[in-house]
């Protein structure tokens, strides 16, 4: 009687592990609005301008808002310039997920951080964490 239960437990575990190994697909509704809703194109240029919820692009799990259709078009043309860098990982603690509302613009690129301490470390010596 123990063998069938053991086999069933192995099947359940194998199924759970195979699901965990598969990358999750982020649905539009699951995407997070980062940067406190600021337009990333304007932010990269050093200006904090609120984005419009009606002018948006979802990319890499983030739903970016734009203040104009022109900025949205710029983002879509060259997203690697304007999107959050490093896939949203903290540059100070590699592999740590950054908080999408804890950000710094450095050399016209946007980085997000795991903690306020990470932000302060980065601001003190950004060249140690970003190789441009």
Structural class by helix and strand composition = alpha+beta
Query: How many runs of DSSP E, i.e. beta strands?
Result: 4
Mean pLDDT, as a whole number?
A: 83
Sheet having the most strands: 2 strands, antiparallel
Shape: globular
Helix content: 25-40%
What gap, in angstroms, lies between the N and C termini? Answer: 62 Å
Radius of gyration equals: 20 Å
Low-pLDDT runs of 5+ residues are 4-28
Strand order of the largest sheet: 1-2
Number of helices: 5
Beta-strand percentage range: 15-25%
Following the backbone from N to C, one meets helices and strands in this order, namely HHEEHHEEH
Describe the structure.
- The protein is of the alpha+beta class and 132 residues long.
- It has helices at residues 2-21, 40-44, 69-77, 79-82, 116-124, and strands spanning 52-59, 62-66, 99-106, 109-113.
- The protein has a two-stranded antiparallel sheet with strand order 1-2.
- A hairpin with a 2-residue loop joins strand 1 and strand 2.
Would you summarize the structure shown here?
The protein is of the alpha+beta class and 132 residues long.
Annotate the secondary structure layout.
Blueprint: H1 2-21, H2 40-44, E1 52-59, E2 62-66, H3 69-77, H4 79-82, E3 99-106, E4 109-113, H5 116-124
Antiparallel strand pairs: 1-2, 3-4
């Amino acid at each position: 009687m123990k063998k069938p239960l053991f086999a069933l437990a192995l099947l359940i575990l194998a199924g759970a592990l195979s699901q965990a190994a598969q990358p999750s697909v982020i649905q539009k509704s699951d995407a997070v609005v980062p940067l406190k809703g600021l337009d990333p194109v304007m932010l990269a240029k050093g200006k904090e301008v609120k984005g419009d919820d009606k002018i948006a692009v979802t990319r890499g799990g983030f739903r970016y808002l734009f203040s104009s259709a022109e900025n949205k078009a710029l983002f879509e043309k060259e997203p690697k310039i304007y999107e959050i860098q490093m896939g949203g990982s903290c540059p100070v603690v590699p592999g740590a997920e950054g908080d999408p509302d804890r950000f710094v613009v450095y050399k016209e690129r946007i980085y997000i951080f795991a903690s306020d301490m990470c932000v302060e470390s980065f601001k003190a010596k950004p060249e140690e964490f970003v190789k441009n």
